[in-house]
Amino acid sequence: MNLEQQIALVTGASRGIGRAIALELGRLGATVVGTATSETGAQAISAYLAEAGAKGCGMVLNVTDPVSIEAVVKAVGSDFGAPTILVNNAGITRDNLLMRMKDEEWDEIITTNLSSVYRLSKAVIRGMMKARQGRIITVGSVVGSTGNPGQTNYAAAKAGLLGFTKSLAREIGSRGITVNAVAPGFIDTDMTRALPAEQREALVRSIPLERLGAPEDIAHAVAFLASPQAAYITGETLHVNGGMYMP
Amino acid sequence: MSSIEERVKKIIIEQLGVTEAQVTNDASFVDDLGADSLDTVELVMALEEEFECEIPDEDAEKITTVQGAIDYVTAHLG
């Protein structure tokens, strides 16, 4: 697989899955702009990309702010060229039982995890339409398909982006743009390290491959969908979860 | 320098893949020139680039014919 000449925009790239995705796309030759919410995060992205010998840099982006999105897409365009690959990865959790959930917890998740996908996709699509090629890949979650107690908000957002993905895939397929999702299972990141040890052990027992996934497991799936080899795949959700959920 | 009408028609021919003869002034993009909704969005994008302007969505929706596009560009940018 080769992504030379491609310009990839990866949100939430300072750590975890986003970082692995940025590094993998960079390794395959793409110019990568990874985004973080803070200047420190953006600098860290620039540093790890440079260290890996990848082209690109980090930029500060608040995915909930339309003005910030417009500014970053513009900056990527003028510094490197219009993005040909968008990876919607940025996401947060605000877990709570529904009966205890606050409106802010619900709204923050929908805004950060779902509305951001709408805004970013809209912002890059113009360039992709003109180029008659493009890849939009959104990182979902297994809980968007299975549900999870304490995550009504998160699961709703993750399920929502699958519907978004399929609809957009139908809208712009004729222009050579594919739109897909990758749904990770339980991946060893800061987000899942926050779980109690007991719960983690129970989780591992429910996974046929008997381990948590690595961020790289997701990065490889994203890189495949971004590659020319995946040109005939659109509207698809690729589940990468060690077999814990099989649709 | 070509006239606005010529420039608009040239873009329509390129974007919709139609012939010059089909692009009569009263031709409708959808009904006569076979455009779908995405084609009309792209057509407006191309007009924006050619004439270096931004056409608001509410206006863009009203541009449905060749003459409509010529009139819009003439009125707003001419």
Explain how this protein is built.
The complex is a heterodimer of chains A (247) and B (78). Chain A has a seven-stranded parallel β-sheet with strand order 3-2-1-4-5-6-7, with helices on both faces. Chain A has a single domain, classed as NAD(P)-binding Rossmann-like Domain (Rossmann fold), CATH 3.40.50. Chain A is an alpha/beta fold and 247 residues long. Helix content of chain A is 48%, strand content 15%. Chain A is globular, with a radius of gyration of 17 Å. Chain A has nine helices and seven strands, in the order βαβαβαβαβααβαααβ. With 78 residues, chain B is mainly α. Chain B has a single domain (4-77), classed as Non-ribosomal Peptide Synthetase Peptidyl Carrier Protein, Chain A, CATH 1.10.1200. Chain B is 55% helix and 0% strand. Chain B contains four helices and no strands. The radius of gyration of chain B is 11 Å and the shape is globular. Chain B starts with a helix and ends with a helix. The model of chain B has no long low-confidence stretch (mean pLDDT 92). The A-B interface holds A 126, 129-130, 171-172, 174-175 and B 38, 42, 45.
List keywords for this structure.
heterodimer, A: 247 residues, alpha/beta, Rossmann fold, seven-stranded parallel beta sheet, 9 helices, 7 strands, B: 78 residues, mainly alpha, Non-ribosomal Peptide Synthetase Peptidyl Carrier Protein, Chain A
Order of helices and strands of chain A: EHEHEHEHEHHEHHHE
The description of the largest β-sheet of chain B is:
none
* Strand order, largest beta sheet of chain A: 3-2-1-4-5-6-7
Q: End-to-end distance of chain A, in Å?
A: 27 Å
Rounded Rg of chain A: 17 Å
Sheet/helix structural class of chain A: alpha/beta
CATH class of chain B equals Mainly Alpha
Function (chain B): Carrier of the growing fatty acid chain in fatty acid biosynthesis.
Subcellular location (chain B): Cytoplasm
Main location (chain B): cytoplasm
Modified residues (O-(pantetheine 4'-phosphoryl)serine) (chain B): 37
